[in-house]
Amino acid sequence: MKKSSKMFASAAVGALVLTGGITAVANAVTVPQQSAPAAVPAVDVAANPETVVSQNRISVGASADAVKAALAKCQADKLPFVTVALVDRFGTVQALLRGDNAAEHTIEAAKQKAYTAAAFGAPTSELAGRISGNGKPSIADLPGTLFLPGGVPLKVNGVSVAGIGVGGAPDGMLDEACATAGAEAIAGAAK
Q1: The pTM is what?
Q2: d(Cα 116, Cα 121) in Å, to the nearest integer?
């Protein structure tokens, strides 16, 4: 063996011994165990009208039926480039169906029209007339809303629980006719 190889081998053995010694010392040191944080108990809230609000929602099946019916109406009217959205009263999407050739902006338009109708409990065509054009802040400035025709509220016992919106037709009233067809498709489902 050459002298340089012996030195390298010697250095390698020394490193192993040194590493082994450090490992042995590290393993011999005991680290105190930290106790787990105390569990925070869950608080069981009584289910009564003073503390809990019950909420009606449109079922997944009815939501799917509504958006399909709305899109079918638009397709029958030769408007395949629309998007239909059904949202709960908080704006959470329950169902969304994008028609053939529907542009990207129609998705947001449909969701915003649906939310606006649900939040205000009125068709967006009616709400559009309430906007003042005098440059002052108005309800049209609320985030996530769109005050163009095409959104229809869905109500249970007179209370708005959801909205269906259509975006993409060349006229908002065409959007609204499709949204109305979707709403009507599920209106009598529970009766």
Answers
A1: 0.74
A2: 8
